[in-house]
Amino acid sequence: MAFELPELPYAYDALAPYMSAETLEYHHDKHHQAYVTNGNKLLDGSGLEGMSLEEVVKGSFGKNAGLFNNAGQHFNHIHFWKWMKPNGGGHMPGELEKKVVADLGSVAAFREAFLNAGATQFGSGWCWLTLKDGKLEVTKTPNGENPLVHGATPLLGCDVWEHSYYIDYRNARPKYLEAFFDNLVNWDYVAELLSKAN
Ligand code: MN3
Q: pTM of whole model > 0.90?
């Protein structure tokens, strides 16, 4: 099954001022498209054709770096677009909030841990909220790696590659992370992924 670039689930200017149309045009139309195009070239002849995207990501990890990087980033970005929405942030659905409080102490503690993971990821990568062995965890990964290859289910991820924030925030990655968490996150989608993972 060939990889395909999904449409953004909102207009290019819908996330402004927190994420500009220019950022989304480059990030979705150029960067994500490149992962799809290169991923399809590398999938061909890899022995993983016909598998689901998740299976390609797990099956190429540690074995086929080129395919893994592109398939991993394709998976990450499919969700990244859905992890944001216009007028996002704010209160999370009750079931999700209960789980956050039970496993991570409080919403404020989760926010601090998530922002810190994103700020301290050296170089390109992602910070995550994951479910592992029934428990929420905050983690970070380099480059295109994601929690799937560490036996965890990604519930929320923030792209901290410079291409995700440099147009709007220049080098101020912490400001971008705050805007993502406070103004962009689609908590309903995070809650939906949690309910499917349970
Ligand atoms: Mn990206």
A: yes
